[in-house]
Amino acid sequence: MKKLYTFLEQLEEAGIFFTLQRIRESIMVNVVVPGERWEVEFFEDGHVVVERFVTAGDLLDEKALDSLFDKFAE
User: What is the largest CA-CA distance in the chain?
Assistant: First the structure.
């Protein structure tokens, strides 16, 4: 838990937006910065997993919403 608290303090001190979520056996910190999103998972045994999503910088108009829903809706 020390790693999680230290990381949260770093985010707060830097003024970086984040949310917390409980996933499986971990606490996930979802971080949003310009052009990126990070998913940082802290596990009870102490290991940490980081997944980073970076935008290619492409901006789409609202027409893209239909194709996104078609692709990802169940």
Answer: 45
